[in-house]
Write a structure and sequence with these properties.
423 residues; 4-stranded mixed β-sheet; 56% helix; microsome
Length: 423
């Protein structure tokens, strides 16, 4: 009987402690005199339904409208049980992303390069490791580098054109799937230097593991937020965010590509070639930027794999969905479609029938169409930042504690008629 009483008492103590811990988390902003969103769900906070019945964009749009009507510039809220700040005012957004970038350069993405090597990429690293890697990688993303890769991209575009010619008369085509395969082939050849051929073989391994890298459900999302909120604890527990088979596949591809190129002195106009220059020399062949100290390795092979992996993560879903939505809007607006088609044809004709990087970049109406697509359908519904120090919001006494998640609702802001009265 005594044992039962002890177990029962211990159980009640643990439940009470957990309850108080979560309640205090939800009450953090209220207790500190910060504008706050009321009535959070006990477990999911203001993210209730996310990844199950509602998209985060819908949840954030609802919060945005509600608190903008109350003339709040920002509010404290709960992302699950994690206190976070939801920014509404565009001027404060500009301050965070531009003026005070030195405080908000970190994104709060979990990284554990020791146990989860593919997480050690530019978007996740923080502090000095981020600065050093950014210094090395910045020269790889100039317009000149992109121009050099255009020929590689164009070859894949010709394959897409061939696929469409062979199939559009025979059957209805699901363009989201086709554009996903096209984007996979582009990134495969530009970032990894391999021909994926997913337009011809949609069940290729690259497509399989690429899709798995984006798998998301409530459990994975909670694990992601927990890892981002308590990174030190998660590193001690040696937890990983990347699936083991996904890591094995991408690391293997990079290792084999690097080995083949270095053994055979292969050079191509792609991202992998630029990464290899940084890996071996600490900088690009024709650049003084990104140099490293004497005797210091520019980049390890696992670091190189992580940068190629994030090139895929950042480019795949964003590019394929933007293309899909763009075609959808053009189908709904045939007048815009016809004008765009005419301007593209005219630009190509004026360049002796040649499609080049400069031709594509100088078609203003094409730029307008893509920008409007991105406004209506932003690839990421919100931007996340975390301050590296306690941050006093300008013009107030409100403090955002160090390492607190700050969310900028891109989708909500871009659907605000006050900012876009005549889109």
């Amino acid at each position: 009987m005594e044992l039962i009483n002890v177990v029962l008492a211990a159980f009640i103590f643990v439940v009470s402690a957990v309850y108080l811990f979560i309640r205090n988390k939800h009450n953090y902003w209220k207790d500190n005199g910060f504008p706050y969103a009321p009535n959070p769900h006990f477990l999911f906070g203001h993210a209730k339904g996310q990844a199950q019945t509602r998209h985060a964009a819908d949840i954030h749009l609802e919060l945005y409208k509600k608190f903008k009507q109350r003339r709040e510039r920002y509010v404290g809220m709960s992302q699950f049980i994690i206190p976070s700040v939801f920014v509404i005012d565009p001027e404060l957004v500009k301050t965070i992303l531009v003026k005070d970038f030195n405080v908000f350069h970190d994104r709060g993405i979990f990284t554990n390069a020791r146990d989860d090597p593919l997480s050690g990429h530019l978007f996740a690293l923080e502090g000095n490791p981020w600065r050093l890697l950014r210094q090395k990688l910045t020269p790889t993303f100039t317009s000149g580098r992109m121009k050099q890769m255009f020929g590689t991209l164009w070859d894949v575009a010709l394959e897409l054109d061939k696929y469409m010619e062979e199939n559009y008369r025979q059957q209805e085509i699901e363009m989201k799937d086709v554009l996903g395969r096209f984007t996979t082939d582009v990134i495969g050849t530009c970032a990894f230097g391999i021909e994926c051929n997913t337009l011809k073989t949609p069940d290729s391994e690259f497509r399989k593991y690429g899709n798995k890298a984006f798998e998301l459900d409530l459990l994975i999302m909670m694990k992601f937020f927990f890892a981002s909120a308590y990174p030190s604890l998660v590193r001690k527990l040696r937890m990983k965010i990347t699936f083991d088979d996904v890591e094995e596949f991408f690391v293997k591809i990079v290792r084999e590509t690097v080995s083949y190129r270095e053994m055979n002195n292969v050079k191509r106009n792609d991202f992998m070639n630029l990464l290899l220059q940084i890996k071996n020399k600490g900088k690009l062949d024709d650049s003084d930027d990104g140099s490293v100290g004497k005797g210091e390795v520019g980049m390890t092979q696992l670091e190189l794999a992580a940068q190629a992996f994030v090139f895929f993560l950042a480019g795949f879903e964003t590019s394929s969905t933007t293309q899909s939505f763009c075609l959808y809007e053009l189908a709904k607006n045939p007048d815009i479609q016809e004008r765009l088609r005419q301007e593209i044809n005219q630009a190509i004709e004026e360049n002796d029938g040649q499609v080049t990087y400069d031709v594509a970049m100088n078609i203003q109406y094409l730029d307008n169409v893509i920008n409007e697509t991105l406004r209506k359908y932003p690839p990421v519904e919100s931007l996340n930042r975390v301050p590296s120090v306690d941050y006093v919001i300008p013009g107030t006494k409100h403090v955002i504690p160090k390492r607190t998640l700050v969310q900028i609702p891109v989708h909500a802001i871009q659907h605000d008629p006050e900012h876009y009265p005549d889109p």
